[in-house]
Amino acid sequence: MGLSSSYFRKIIICYNVIKYGFYSVNKEAQFKRFFNLSSIITNYSPRLGAGFLNAVVKYSLGNYFLLQYLKRDSHLKIKSRNKLEKILVTADLNIGDAIIAVSSVSALKEILPDSKIDIVVKKSTKNLIEGNPEVSCIYPVYNGAPFPSEADLLKLSNIVRSKNYDLIINFSPMISDKIFGKNNIINYSLMAAELIRNEFKNDKVNNIHHLAYRFIGEIFLGNLPAAFGKDFLGSKIYLSGNAVDSAENFLLSCGIDRYEPVIMFNPDASSKFTRMPITFQVDLLEGLSELRCKILLGSGHVEKFIEQRIINSLSLFAREKVFIIPASMQLDEYTALIDYSDIFISGDTGNLHLAAARKYHRNDGLQMRNKTSVFSVFGGTPPKIYAYDSNLPGYLPANQDAPSRAFVAASECRNITCINKLAKTCREVRCFKPLNPEEIVLAAADRIETAVENFDQVGRIILKDQIQSYKQIG
Predict the structure, then answer these.
(1) Of 4, 73, 278, 423, which has the fewest CB atoms closer than 10 Å, so is most exposed?
(2) End-to-end CA distance of the chain
(3) Region for 370 from its dihedrals, namely left if φ exceeds 0, alpha if ψ lies in -120 to 50, beta otherwise
(4) For the whole prediction, is pTM greater than 0.70?
């Protein structure tokens, strides 16, 4: 059956909106205009608009010929370099972006083990990367987001001018290659084209960490070690003893034993399109409070005091099991606290990638738990790119010794342009319709049941040791 005349008119309107929408020469303005126009299209017709945007992006930015051109261009740039001893990786601007860029550093170090690799990241992530033996120097530059400030760009320009890098890999679409002033730049374009193509192939793993790693392998194709990629499971985070101690002290201040089952719940996100609706969060926390565990509730940093609004909406029974993580807690302490948790629940935001990353103690003799089940709750953004799941095809599991789950709303207007949730301007938040909290509670119950068994077993071992100690004293 053909399209009706009204549907045909909608397609023509959508096409013209995109065709005539790009007259600004300013990159930031173009960026905002594109995502604003994409929002207008799905406002006008959610389902048809989503299909139209997917088709436009797939066949323009993800087409086979563009992909081959980008591959060839990257290969030529690599071949033109006489040496590759000093490399700079510039991450995109947010917390999660810094962790994603670390995946590319791992790939570079695997291919070029003797090279020195520096990385530019958001300021607050420095303490998560410091101690990583694969990184030579960390430049905590970015303060601005979703766009770099003039101060950020000046600092970046000064770094590049003061160093003589053999290769610069730029992961940020908001930082022009011109700022580096050289021809030895490879930017995110090839990875973006791969991401777009993979998004429409159900069997292709399309997680952003996986892509960042494979992207490096692609540009060095022909020069890869035989075992390249076989041991890659995801990004890494390195934590100080002070961060780990602070996390444990916080648990003790809440009266929570370090072995007691804990769910950590992140209520906030950088965008209203990825932040779970408060009513949904309240229903979910009510259900989780029925489980034999304690709940750590994060504070709002974008949506200020969201944690208080949630607490005020909970029943008295649920409130007694929920403890608020103060907003003043440092990011590395927060990440260490995740490692003490049996389940971490979050929408699409940087904290989700902190939870999924493998944690390492900077003191080589000490081990982190890495037994956190990561539950990704997704509304608008494409889940294969940012969520984690141990069973679903096309997803990457979290880099933890525990199963991860993705819970995805059947949003009719979700499309590939929703990847940039910070720039979307949709008039209505339809992203989480419909999504059932009971499914998440049931999955959490299975995981907590295992944690309770382990907790009881630890308790029995501790009690046995105490009895043995008393006998020796007697």
Answers:
(1) 4
(2) 88
(3) left
(4) yes
Burial 432-449 (b: 16+ CB within 10 A, else e): beebebeebbebbeebbe
CATH 3.40.190.10 fits 239-459, yes or no: no
Starting at the edge strand found earlier in the chain, the sheet holding 373-378 runs 322-324, 294-297, 262-265, 343-346, 373-378, 405-408
Residue 38's φ and ψ, nearest 5 degrees, are -65, -35
DSSP string, 74-90: HHHHHHT-S---EEEEE
Phi, psi of 452, deg, nearest 5:
-65, -45
Burial (CB count within 10 angstroms: exposed 0-12, middle 13-18, buried 19+), residue 254: middle
Task: Encode pLDDT of 36-56 as tens digits.
Answer: 999 999 999 999 999 999 999
pLDDT tens-place string over residues 346-404? 999 999 999 999 999 998 778 999 999 999 999 989 999 999 999 999 999 999 999 99
DSSP class of 420: -
Fold exhibited by the domain 75-222: Rossmann fold (3.40.50)
Q: Which amino acid is at 17?
A: V
The label of the residue with tokens 């000064």 reads 158
Chain centroid to Cα 406, Å, comes to: 13
